[in-house]
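Attaching the record inline, Q. Sequence:
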Amino acid sequence: MAWYDEAIFYHIYPLGLTGAPKQNPYGEPVHRLNTLLPWIPHIKEIGCNAIYIGPLFESVGHGYETTDYKKLDSRLGTNEDLKHFVAECHKQGIRVILDGVFNHTGRDFFAFQDIKNSRENSQYKDWYCNVNFGGNNSYNDGFSYENWGGYDLLVKLNQHNPAVKDYICNVIRFWVSEFDIDGIRLDAADVLDFDYMKALRHVANEVKPDFWLMGEVIHGNYSRWANDGTLHSVTNYMLHKALYSGHNDHNYFEIAHTIKYVSGMVGNNLKLYSFVDNHDVERIYTKLKNKAHFQPVHVMLYTLPGVPSIYYGSEFGIEGRKEQFSDDSLRPALNYEDYRTAITTNPYTKLIAALGKLRQNTPALCYGDYQELELQTTHFAYARNLDGKSVITTVNNGDNEVTMELACGNSAEYVGALSGERVSVNGGRIRVKVSANSGEIWISAETLGESVAPVCAEEAETVKAVEVVEKPEMVERSEAVETLETVESLAVVEVVENVESAEPVEKVEIAGTVEEPKTEPAKVQEEKKPDKIVVDWNKAYEEMSVEELQEAILEKMRKNGPVTDYMLGTVRENTHHGSLVNWVKSF
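Structure, as predicted:
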């Protein structure tokens, strides 16, 4: 067992949360990171025991165009500020992992600047991919290079160069010795060279016991990246998508299928990084058509296999819509004082805190085997089994109360950890009622008494009974986010139902339309392709076009079974050549 096996993460995008300027003036340090110190007790109070924070180091703008890996961004402060922040987290029992942006640098990075100045004579000309002094780029430097994502601002590092590999490995050593961090989240891990990642894993094993490497992987077979030789874990984007669309579509079959599909990839012992939103995707509160689904979504996040994460601000139920040319609304500045009392006044925060305490005190939710108990389009039950005892989760995305009879462990009585309701065991089964658009976690009375005392029935019941209160406004909001207020005004829905109430939650109406429940499991889509792409299997993957790589992946998928809507969509949406190459090799 390692600390990350029992971790609950709080994800911070610091340049956004602190309200830093969008562009770095490279001036005197402004100690904005210190404004995050009051957030540490809040993070602990809602049950999180780990923080993923980044990007942090000197950069041009959004943080991913690194200028200096060894200097805190001057918009946030100094290295001493970061040392102090990590030390304060450790004092309160919170681990810290940083964002490692090791696929590319910014143009102000010293190696790239040397190439600009010395051109062919630069000792760093092989630090980047495909530098061609006979070409040009959008900045008119008189040479070309391979960029990341189509942006010349992001210069792709040559990960095959031993000097680059050694430099980045020494950066990790520096971060540990200087700041005492506990792990790193690797940005764009799905396009990192595997030998490069193996070198990083070697350093991780060297610098600190249980130092955690987690990678951002969006597509492909997760086990190719997360294993004993490369990374400890990767982001579970498949579950992320299933959790919100399974509720929006009233289709728990999608979630159940995703759980089985991912488990088939990685096995039962590997814990993936689970989330419902982050700095790159829309807020979960914005995504959900029925805001009452906030509760069952998070009940599942905290009880399914994986390492759960909460993105800063989402515990308050704030909005955030992804725009075509800006992610600013996903990364707002928040004033801690506006949320100081949220844990006692905001039902969303109360729910997250209750779930955090519950998971921290229930080993089965970290280590128990997953078992599906009942599955319908609108309701779902599963167990986490450990040492002969079961923790049972029941969720309901429908507008009517449901009753379920479920197999359970050896106990005389079970208790709803959120409601305090008690049910007797008869013939090895329990009969439970689940309110409309809600969820519950059923724990044996014996276990509840021993280890889950912090989640008392009185506390948890307020989560269900409190009316939704008006949320404090963001300090900075884009016009796009402000338009969401009109959506909220169309329907106000309690985050969760009072357990005593027999009245169903009203269906949320948005812009005059009502989402009707779907009554079928995820169907296999009949693929419609404008032109048939024929894959030349004699061609190296690196030489294939994006379209050829997509078709190659789909052909490999078809050999393993039917290609669902979701599987097809993830392939078609991925247009990054390097990511597709790694994906097709993962079969």
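Confidence is low (pLDDT under 50) at residues 450-530. The domain at 3-103+160-364 is CATH 3.20.20.80 (TIM Barrel).

More tomorrow.
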